[in-house]
Amino acid sequence: MADEVTRHSTSSSEPSPPVPAPPPPPRRLLPPPPASLPPSRPPPPGTSPPTHTPPSRRREIGGTSRTDQQIMDRSHEDSSLDIDEIAISMEDLITNKAFSWECCIYRVPARLRRLNEEAFTPRVVSIGPFHHGKENLKAMEHHKIMYLQQFLERSKVNVGDLINVFEGYETKLRDCYAEIETIDLSKEDFAKMIILDAVFIIMVLLKFVGESNESLHGEQIFFRPWKFVDVVWDICLLENQLPFFLLQKLFELYPIKNCTIMELTFDLLKEVWTNWVKEDSRERINCSGVLHFVDFLRMCQQPSKHHLPKDKTRFSSAPVPTAMELHQSGVKFKNPGRNSLFDIRFSNGILEIPQLEIHARTEILFKNLQAFEQCHHMYEDKFVSDYISFISCLVRAPNDVGVLARNENLKIMLNSDEVVSKLVYNLDKENVVSANNFLIGICEDLNSHCRKRRHNWMATLKQDYFKNPWTAISVAAAAFLLILTVTQTVMPESMVVGDGVQGACRQRSRRWHVPCRDCCL
């Protein structure tokens, strides 16, 4: 018994033999391929046979379960809804288009406004939506209502008639303004604003031309000259415009004969911009082609046909010499007395430039015309911008202003020549000329003239030695003596003639002899 216990304890202290692993489950063989499929080819030598992924693993890698498929279907439905919403919003953007080919009234580009914001900002009255509702301009709103009342009394129409005219052109009116969608104005507010502003402009035109002093009693505009001028300047700003066709339609409701709104507009603008609006441009302006007052002013100054370049691809970037440089090259400046400021000519060393008035409001006129051309005329026919570029090349310093002022090409109404040169310099900032610059031929002719040295020499002789008659006489006498001296020194003795026969002088012993009567005379 003890031996059995001892054997049991001994056997329990020894390690038990390893338990054999259970046999692997029988391998599931893939079903044989269908009889219609050809047997698979054995892999090429040196490559391992392809491994077959179990069906469950294949679902994890490349397939989807039924639950996953339902989630993807719902996600696809959600993405389809987003696409529909985007499509609807884009259709709304197309319907409410931000730009139209009818657009002609623009906001001034920021790069131009930064140069002189006052040149583009109205002072006393707002016209159109861009400056509507500003606090400093509300004082004139009461005056607009008073003018509307007078218009209705004299035209025998009612407000409904004015609204009917507006409704017929509402879409066209909105299309005339750039970025109109950024202005929060309802249809009713827009109609009220347009009608009040249009009637206000018409009444200003009528009162300026045809009203008597008695009917103007108590007027805040016409009995205050400074305010009248400010009003006219304000209605000539690019951002302060109404389409001209609306003014024509409303003016037809007013009972006046033998007078058109085109004639009234011309007379009013001529009163303020006397140097720009000339009488000979009255017949040139086509009423149907005028967009607004800024476009009207632009039409008042147009280059003649012979100034327009025949080759529209012709472009030159060569700078034009300054007025002083042209003067030193012998160019003469002349005021031809022509009405068109753009009628500039150069021939036979004479540069003809019609007189330009420079006053405190010159920059306002040119800046707004310049901004309109940059917004509305993309590449060609920037006549005002081309003219500004030409004048700014001539005037780069105060002495250039003096040259043009002495020759009556400039009429200065400012304090000094330096102020004028700075004004012209500011006009040319951010200026964009047209590809078919109508002054390119004159620029090339001026550069060609200055490159010829004989013109510089002759100009120096005239300007330095022929300033006054006494200097000219002195120079002429000195030149005459110099010619005599050179003739006596250089002429050979063989050219001396005596007694009708060529020979030598008998007084050869004298080195410097005076021609004697016997042999030399």
From TrEMBL:
Residues 1-79 are annotated as: Disordered. Residues 15-53 have a biased composition (Pro residues). PANTHER family: BNAC04G53230D PROTEIN, PTHR31170:SF17. This is Uncharacterized protein. The lineage of its organism: Eukaryota, Viridiplantae, Streptophyta, Embryophyta, Tracheophyta.
